[in-house]
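Two records follow; treat each independently.
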Amino acid sequence: MAAQYPDFDKLPLDKTGPRGNAWGLWGKDDQLGTLNHLTDEAVGQAARENIKTGTRLSLNWSMKGASYPKFARKNLDLRLINKAPLKHAHDDEWSFNSQCSSQWDGFRHYAYQNEALYYMGRKAEEFAASDHPNSIHHVSAKGIAGRAVFIDWYSWALSQGLEIDAMSSYEVPFNQIVKTLGFQNMNLDSLRAGDIVVIRFGYLSQYENMEPAKREYLDKLYQTKKPDNIGLKPSDELLRFLWNTKVATICGDSRSLEVWPCKDLDWHLHEWLLAGWGMPIGELFYLEELAKTYDKFVEHAPDAYPGLSPEDAEFMRGYEGKTGKKVVKKIDFRLLPIMAVLYLLAHIDRGNIGNAKIEGMDKDLGLVGNQYNIASTIFFVPYIIFEVPSNIVLKKVRASIWLSFLVICWGTVMTCMGVVQNFQGLVACRVILGVFEAGFFPGAVFIVSSWYPRHELQQRLAIFYTASAFSGALSGLLAFGIARLDGARGIAGWRWIFLIEGAVTVAAGLVMPLLIIDTPERAKWLSDDEKRYVDLRLRLSGVRSNTEEGDKFSWKLLFKTMVDWKVLLGIILAWANSVPNAAFKFTMPQIIKQLGFSTAQSQLLTMPPYVCGGIAAWLSGRFSDRLSWRMPFIVGPMSVLLVALAVLFNYSKNVADNVPAMYVGVMLAQIGIYPLLPGISAWTGNNLAPSWKRSIGLAWLLAAGNLGSLIGTNIFLDREGPQYPTGYGVSLGIICLGASCALLMEFCLWKSNKARAQLSEAEIRQKYSQEELDAMGERSSVVQVHPLAMENMLQRPWWCWASIMK
């Protein structure tokens, strides 16, 4: 409860916000608004005074009620399904729009129209990014429970001889509400803080008793025009009373609580109550059975945590807000830096061959023709082959042991590259390096995706993937510094690059078993309650299976995953990253050197493009997670990359006169490249379940996607420099193909979500057992595929009960 409750005349509380707002009264993170008036004391008093006989009455109108004349919202579609092969068992299958019948308008439903601001000043994009702000699931913590004051305006109006057409824009002014209270031997002082105001306008009474001719007329009219309806006339007096009396919420039996269309926009109730105060509005409540009863006790509690036990749901409520955020931050700081460092080392070790080349490696080893390209390319052959097997091993062996083993092995191979004497030795080391590096990135992606819900994933992947961008910058800086050892102990500078960087990797691998986190259950720095919280949020988001049977490896699962259309389209998207990425990884130092810079300058000038690419990856991931939308943050960078390659190809005809433009093109290329793989990995991982399928799918995506690296390392041919028509042409073509596939994937996922939306989650869970849902994986309608996270803004009051006081 607010420390000091202000008078109506003190509104707005946020002076920078729209008229009448009460933002901040119950704290900056409030999610309940005027429901804060429903204190334990107020509800307890209502229960003691009004629950007498135990008689229960439903306030729900029939979900098939608005069928003729029909509103512009989907009515209930009810099908009876025989549970074959059982002969005497059936299920009900339901599909409907939540506003076709009795429902509460939540705080996401309506904004201040001119300002486009919802309750607490929140914007629509915040709702797409997270299921937390202004969601009606916050109401489920304690439900809507209290004393309901029933105001039967319709009975009073009929007693006064008023002619009422509830299907018209008939305005009910506040003074008539006051008169109705008097008619019921009550007055304004009869209401108290925490009351639920329930008004009967006669809308449903007239709807159900409508003459056939009028039904036919209105049904045709509603096909082209939004229905008019009776309702409260918005006014200063009405709002002042609701606020100063501390009414918790208000509802009625009309299609809209306020008259529609609303003409008094200065006092527009949907703006003032929903967006301004956070007061839920109830509509189409069936009140005919209560027409002569004034005080009720009403309870309504929507399920905020479907699929969880009552005990788990209650536990999750305790972690809402700051407590849960602290746990997530703890995971961020423990998990992501370690993965970022390892990925940094992996990219330095695979790409430093390019730095070694311009320090004289090719001359010392006698490389001729396309032998350098072969040595660069051969790395990706075992890298592709061993990615999927490595991730299968990862599911059988502790991640801390397996990934540390891989790091130590590739670090050892990297050190050995410092002593090779010929082309054959270089190729052998690159092959073995590919074997051991193959398992790291898909394993790291799988581990990260196993800790975070889907809408939080890309930003986290981008954080440690950004390390690959900084590896390019750091690799150039390290090469510049290490190469100064040229001749020390009789060893060439390029050899020192391999020796020192390999030794650092081995050292890192030795300490990794102490730092890498396998699963939340093994994290000693998480309390038992924190582990439970992490587990439950992963189950709610579909990342984890709720049953053991739903998450087992099988060869059938392996095959189905490898031919899954989402994975196959993702592979083409990955090619649009790997072709230009591999090409620039191994040829950027050479491209920059051809701009007229010295070897040392070229090493240093590789840094800014990689830094820009890393920043772009992080920003892209952050905004993609906020909006829970992947496609724009994949197609967008691809568009930037297209522009960059066009600039480079155009100006490469006359490099000497276009050095600044060429260098800007190189920077734009990295800005376009580095956001791609985190987005593609997150998008694919978001749409694969359970964890075995996600593990295999991500590994297969990255393995097959790296086929593009075989192409990328062989298209920028030395003999074609500095124009590189083959390199730029192939890159442009594959990027266009990738952008087209991203748009196709977005459309297919949208269609899939549209089909899934025909059933609510509650209906799905009633139809299928948890084992059946887990077996379906992401094909289950409970797991919404992820072009865009969406949430119903309105919730039907599934059950209500009232005790009648005679």
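The next record belongs to a different protein.
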Amino acid sequence: MFNEHTVTENGIIDCLKGLSGVNWTYCHGENLPKQTQDIFVEEWLKEALCSLNPDIAKQPDLADEVIHKLRGVVFEAKFTGLVKANENFQEWLLAEKSLPFGENGDHITINLIDFDNLENNHFVVSQQVHYIAATEVYFDIVLYVNGIPLVVGEVKTATRPSVSWQDGAADFIGGKKHYWQNVAPFFVPNLLCFASEGKTFAYGAINAGPKDWGPWHNTELREEILPGLQSVLNSAEGLLNPVTLLQLLESFALFSTVKTGKNTPPKRIKILPRYPQFEAAKQIVERVRRGYPKKGLIWHFQGSGKSLLMLYAAKMLRADNELKNPTVLVVVDRRDLDSQISETFGGADVKNLIKVQSCKKLGQYIEQDSRGILITTIFKFKDVEIDDTNKDGLNNRSNIIVLVDEAHRTQEGGLGDKMRWALPNAHFYGLTGTPISGIDRNTFKLFGAEDDPGRYMNRYSYKQSIRDGATNPVKFEPRLAELRVDRAAIDEEFNELVKANNLDDEEKAELSKRAGKLAIMLKAPKRMAAVSEDIANHFTSHVKPKKMKGMVVVYDRDACVQMYYLLGEQLGFDAVEVVMNIDQAPIRAEDGDKKGKINKDWRKWHDDLELPVKDADFERWQVVDSDEQKQKDLIETYKDPKQPLQLLIVTAKLLTGFDAPICYCMYLDKPLRDHTLLQAMCRTNRLYQTDETRKDMGLIIDYLGVFENLRTALAYNPDEIEGVIEGIEAFKALLPIQLEKCLAFFPNVDRSLEGFEGIMAAQECLPTNAKRDEFAAAFGVLAKLWSAINPDPFLHTYRKDYKWLAQIYESVKPVGQTGALVWAALGAETIQLIHQHTDINRIRDDIDELIMDEHAIFTLTDKEQEQRARKIEIDLMGRLRGHDDPKFVALGERLEKLRQDYEAGVIKAIDWLKGLLDAAKDTVQAERESGDKVVTQADNRQALTKLFLETRPETTPKLIGDVVEQIDKIVKATRFDGWQNSNSGPREIQKALLLTLAQFGLGKDKELFAKAYAYIEEHY
């Protein structure tokens, strides 16, 4: 029989056993020389300690002391948490610990792994590894290096189309198994985990959420990768070979402190690279070691993680002994990028990190031959005076490596020339998502080596990042024709205007005069008022319901001030803020030779333009502009979904290097083009997911028609920008087509039927898991289209059908993590739509009716039993989805198994129904234990009446009222608080119940008596 163990699991194992060079030897879990409670294979670990540590080899008993220390690190996880314990254990793995095992008690470094000579290590792949801690588990695949479990893999059977790698990952992340919590000690030594179902493959670090898992390919694979076993094996071979794993462990597995919100403490996380970062960082180091060529271009799409790539490269360069203590200079082009890079490096506790504070300091660091990692902006090179007679510059060392972020920007002008003169023998590596290929400015020629095909060293495209789930697609929506300005005026000034980023102050001043005509039109008060009103309406109706935030990009700083007060009046001033450059002089100088002088920005806005600017606002903007920490705090406030700040208003700042995944929508009212436009719009493409929402795309609201001609707006090779941004209007054409595809699953179903009858009729059209998953995939596409368009009058025609489909989707969605990639949580707007007039997510208060149905199930036909079972299942599944407690998830999985067994013919309808009734009783008990609502005594009597009215035998219709009344009377008279726990109480209730049933000819039905008593015991 083909299952996960005979196909995918063994396929991965065979792949690893057959690797060329150093490969894995195989040992089945039941043959491992260890006990089930052991984490290490101590026999192998002792052998490695002796072979890799001469001092231990002389006294093999010392190996036991090391293992005792390692056990101590594992034990600490109870108190420090898994991530911290994992970080501590990694220090041992990287030979950063020593013990007094040398002569005269000298401390010696303890080596657990030989990173230089891989053949000196013992690599074992095992399957079905039995481990017992708080719970008992069998891990599908475990990779041991010298007896230490570095990798754990979960392989799922593709029992239904919706099953994916995420179902395997769910075993680590949460649910009933929740390995990282329930058997955490086993993961203290862990490097990474992986998951597959035989079609797809993904890996993640401990405690990583679903969005932090990723695929493993190589950047040469440009085309779509078809799911299948061969793709899985290619990924396994690429990631799980000993060379890659030990490189990841030695140079790429990082721990970083990240902020979690304005008012919540930071947390420690483990970071692993995505494969483009892994490839490019290694290529940089290898090229520097080789010595030629002394440059290279890394072309990775915006949002795919260039900051981390630089961090990896810098750490590896600094750790390479062959490079003889090099200097790594990280150069950015804006202060906000400087702040972001510094935060990335600082959070990862990078050693010998220097943040350059001034032009003078930069010159000193270079001339004084400082070693370490220096982070600076390109503008700090402005005081460098080029001396053409001096060929040595400020420092002619060859082991200086310059990593230039956003390499297409100002590094290519005069400041770039100064930097290259100052460091004549340095290596220069440019990183960009938007290279420029013009006559005057050409990123490829400046950073790209001639030996590299296409003049780039590594390429990770838009299509690849979307395919891998590294970024979201971005859509645009043209806005209100009446808000447009004269196209001819824009075209006249456009080409000059977009060059402003590369001009000095004097040139910018001249340009601003020539651009005055356009500025006047864009900032006309009536137009600005109309734009602000449209932004407020769109944000309130489209963005805020999604529980995400936005940015407003306006023409200049004057427009920032205008827009702040216009939007503040409509949305509240706590919902908007401006981030811009501003004159730092006092509003009114109080003393000194400038006493009485008015700040030039204040004078312009307050006096000349007569804007309602207030002292407090002006001074707050000054602080945000001048104080780096205050700007960081503001951005953290914006990133926090619980904070009221919703919109940031900018004109130049934060258009590059600003990484706020919660940013969903950008309101664009500034003429941008080419790389500047591409960078700006990619502020919205970051992945974002919480318990309440998930971002499937970024949105640009275009007030100037910038995207009307995409090839003009983005002057790149059409093949390079294909699909980078698409109009949201296209969604309106697709939605009716997709809606019909979804409705086609339900031929001849009366959609006017409400309640359970309508849902059951629809469910009969989805009789198998495969059919349900097919419907889920189709509806998932429809839901994304709906969310992107909503709210819009266009949707009114389709609203009723969409709501009906959403109800069906929710009613058949598996409880727990099954098929999580396909069965995604519906968006907040769709949930709200479903629940406006119905409540299928919560079981009715008369759940007692469902439980007590078992007393009369034998009187039902097979068809009636099936219908009753489906009714109970719908009700219970809806109720269970309201809980994330593992015991409710387990109940949901139990219901799913019952249904699958019934549909497969393993059990009959009556057995399915009885199983559901038992599960219903357990659900009530679980809710009682968790403090949820418990049915009242009055509810019980009402439910009991309904039960017998609906399920009575046909031969006894007149007796129903008497039976119900008599049971109620007897139970009410006999019961007392705590009767279940007394000696006489249960006996009296049982006696009363038996007499009552016997009175009506039902006393011999033992199953009826047992279930009726169990129900009474639970609810009275």
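Discussion point: Residues 731-834 form one domain. How would you locate this feature using only the token line?
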